[in-house]
Specification:
By secondary structure, the chain is of the alpha+beta class. It has one domain. The protein has 8 helices and 7 strands, in the order H-E-E-E-E-E-E-H-H-H-H-H-H-H-E. It has a 4-stranded antiparallel sheet, with helices on both faces. A 3-stranded antiparallel sheet has the order 1-4-5. Helix 1 runs parallel beside helix 5. It is globular and about 50 Å long. This is DUF1353 domain-containing protein. Keywords: Signal.
Length: 231
Amino acid sequence: MRPPRLAMFTAALATCSALSACGHVDYNNAPRGEFSGNLFVMWVGEGGASGDGKFLFVPDPGNPLSFTLPGDDGKPLRIQPQMMYTDGGSIPKIGQVFNGFGPWGYARAYMIHDWLYVARHCNLDGMPTGPEAGMAAISFQQSADILASAIRALVTSGRVKENDVAGRTISGAVAGPIARELWDKRGACPQPRVAEMDRLAAEAAIPGSSQRRAARRAGVPVAMVVGQFGF
């Protein structure tokens, strides 16, 4: 049985407060975008005092995840994340009790958004890779709008169930002041982007990888695939 609209609205406000003060994103009219490719989410070790561990987003070498939507100049904007550490949606525990607010529910959309932050930090610190430099023109507001577009793309493709409260609230949260402070943080470009041992473990875990045996011979543990998503 669906909860009354008032209860849903109250839950959304509580979750928004937990995530951060929300900014403005026109979720219902977000530009239409499309996903393609595959991604793997891998567990590569224990986390800190909280959380479920240390996770890596790993693109499929043969068919990497990408998200394409209209650009401001009329040309398509294609976002293709590179290997990076992730915790999914960074949803506080208090928010995860609500339907649609799990940290992995919109995993593909979260990977696109996480990648924009990695690129932003490395551009700010003056040490971007080629793919990161290609994201330099994306603004903070655009990053939130892109997440909204990505969530809506998952919904319209039937990959996830419709949940306007979750989609709208999460999109608004990443447009808020706490997210903005993180967006403008200097000294946050990870060095290295991914530890070499973790990279080797992840590459060896990709289904069909030719590096699995070599990794085991070298004593490199093979990462555990905990999520696999494709289009």
